[in-house]
Structures are given as C-alpha cells and as structure tokens.
Design a protein that fits this description.
It is a single chain. By secondary structure, the protein is an alpha+beta fold. Among the domains are: 47 residues, no CATH class; 103 residues, Tetrahydropterin Synthase, Chain A, CATH 3.30.479; 86 residues. The strands form three sheets. Strands 3-2-5 form a three-stranded antiparallel beta sheet. A three-stranded antiparallel beta sheet has the order 6-7-8. Helix 3 packs across helix 5 and helix 7 crosses helix 8. The radius of gyration is 62 Å and the shape is rod-shaped. The N terminus is likely disordered.
C-alpha cells in the first residue's frame, strides 16, 4: 500500500514538474530563479525568492526564505517568483511620431515583483505582458511628440512610459522601476535632412555672430569717433578760451602801456621846451607815414605842399595851440577817469597836463 502511494505521489510530482509553466523565459534571456521543487516535507527556500504553495489545487500560502514544512501529496509548490530586480530588453519596434516620421526604437525595462500572489495568478506570463505593455505605451507616447522633441525630451518620455506601465501593472503585482530608451533609428533620408538642418542652423548662427561682431565693431568705431570729436571740441574750446584770455591780457597790457606813455608825454609837454619836443615827434611821424605811401594800395592822396615838412609841422602845432587856448579851465568839464588815458598828448588841455 505504501509503495503504491509513493509511486503515485512520485508520478504526480513528476507530471506536475513537467506541466508547470516556465516563467520569465525569453529567447534572449532565461531567468530561472529555481526549478519547481518537489515536496520533500522539509524545504529550504533561498533568499529573495517566493514559493507559491497550493493545497489540493487551491492557493494555500507563500513560503518565506528559510526552513519550511509541507504536507506530502496535499501541498505542492506551484510557482517560484524571484524578488530581485529584473532587467528586460524590449525588442526594437517601429513608431510614428507626431510629424509622421517612422522611428525604430528599442529600450530596457527594469521591474520588480512586489506581490508574488498577483504575479502568479493575475497574469499568465508577466514578462511577456509587461514587454507588450511597454511597447504599446512607447508607441502611444511617441505619437504625441515631434521628431525634434523625441531627442530633446527623452527623460520625460521615459518617465511617462514608466507611469503608464505602473498604472496597468498594479493588478499584476509588478512595479516598473525605470525605463530607458537605448537607440533611436531614423530613416536615411530623414537623417540626411536633419544633418542639412543642423548645418543650416550652424551657418545661421555663424552669420548672426558675424553680423553681431560687425555691429559691435561699428558701434565701437562710432563711439570712438564720438569721444574723439568731444575731446577735440573740448580742446578747441579750451584753446579759444586761453586765446581770448591771452588777447584780453594783451589788450589790457597795451592799454596800460599806452596810458603810461600818454602820462609821460603829457608830463614832458608841461616842461620847458615841450613844444619843440612835440614838433620833433610830429615831424618824425610825418616822415614815417610819408615813407609808407603806396605800399598797401594803389590809391594815394598827397597834399599840395608835400616837400614842405616845416609847414606841416607848423600847421600841426598851430592846431594844437588853438585847441589848447579854446579849452578854458572853468568851463571844461573834467573827463572820466577811464578815458584820460585814451586821449593823446596833443589833444589834452594844459590844465589836464598839469594835473597829470
């Protein structure tokens, strides 16, 4: 009787082991955590593994890592789930972007089983289900983006795919940790157009930079010219101010010298033989003026007695004497102080000459 039971139990276990589905198997990778163990009453479960036990065909419990005991013939290990992080290669697939460009994209999916019960009874093949979900989600997310945004927003695209996968795989007890796009292949013609676009963009930037450089250079030259003109005008202004100040000082110096000369001349005329000295001075000035005739202009006016120098001197002294006699001391008003120096000696009255 015992032999018959042992034979039947061994046959049942062998048949169960043969008919048990192999989970987490792909053509590229085979991730067998452990083969389905036989019920040997005493079982040792490895770390980071979960063994799903059925009793008489119905879910009973999940064996924890370590020592466990099962009832022979009634209990059997139905599923073995690995609790480690699993890496799945998502095969290359075609997707159409928002601007109708066909792309070939493949990726890598990182996931972990959080609930062995849901992973065992919620879906028949968790890996196949998650892979198909990742592919469909990738197609739908790529259809929302243009070709340029696919390359610029890969991070946001990966996060959107992970969020969509987690929403659907929550009932399977699987958590998608991250999704990474490995390669994006574009058609050759599109690649050529992209390269041409990049070259055109670079040429545009080079042209813009060159124009900006020329503009800045022109601005700098104009600014330099402006500063130069301002400095030149300020220098010319300072020069004119200095020249005007110099001319004013020269005029003042000439006026003071002339006034001093007039004072000295009037003092000389008031002394003895002053008339003789005045006659000598007038004669000298006449001779000097006569010698300069016809040097500057062609028009010359000559008196009738050009050679009578004594007569011209006598006439000048007679005019001087007449003016001196007609100006009386009582009726003549005193001239302003500032105009005394401007009168020549031969026009001053005797009283003024004595006062000076």
């Amino acid at each position: 009787m015992l032999r018959t039971l042992c034979r039947r139990s061994g046959a049942i276990l062998q048949q169960t082991q043969r008919s048990a589905p192999r989970l987490w198997v792909t053509p590229a990778q085979q991730r067998w955590a452990s083969s389905l163990p036989m019920n040997t009453v005493v079982l040792f479960v490895p770390q980071q593994e979960a063994w799903v036990v059925e009793r008489m065909g119905r879910y009973h419990r999940i064996l924890e890592p370590g020592l466990n005991f099962l009832i022979p013939l009634l209990d059997r290990v139905r599923y073995v789930q690995s609790l480690k992080e699993i890496v799945i290669d998502v095969p290359e697939q075609s997707a159409v972007s928002l601007d109708n460009v066909t792309l070939q994209i493949d990726g890598v999916l990182y996931l972990r089983i959080l609930d062995p019960f849901k992973a065992s009874y919620g879906v028949e093949d968790p890996e196949y289900a998650v892979t198909q979900l990742a592919q469909t989600t990738m197609r739908s997310e790529l259809g929302k983006l243009t070709l340029d945004k696919v390359f610029r927003e890969r991070e946001s695209l990966n996060s959107n795919i992970v969020h969509s996968i987690n929403q659907a795989s929550d009932e399977w007890g699987i958590r998608c940790l991250r999704y990474e796009i490995k390669d994006i292949h574009v058609p050759p013609r599109v690649k050529e157009s992209m390269q041409m676009q990049v070259e055109a963009e670079r040429k545009k930037r080079a042209t813009v930079l060159e124009s900006e450089g020329m503009r800045e250079a022109a601005i700098n030259v104009a600014e330099g010219r402006k500063q130069a003109q301002i400095l030149a005008s300020e220098g010319e202004k300072a020069e004119q101010i200095n020249q005007a100040a110099g001319e004013a000082q020269a005029v003042l110096a000439k006026a003071e010298a002339k006034a001093k000369a007039i004072r000295l001349l009037s003092a000389a005329l008031a002394e003895n033989n002053g008339n003789a000295a005045a006659s000598l001075s007038v004669a000298e000035q006449y001779v000097s003026a006569f010698s300069n005739l016809a040097k500057q202009t062609n028009t010359v006016l000559l008196p009738s007695n050009t050679g009578d120098i004594s007569g011209m001197v006598t006439q000048a002294m007679t005019i001087y004497s007449t003016l001196a006699k007609t100006a009386s001391p009582s009726s003549a008003a005193p001239p302003p102080p500032e105009k005394k120096d401007d009168l020549p000696d031969y026009l001053a009255s005797p009283e003024e000459q004595r006062t000076q």
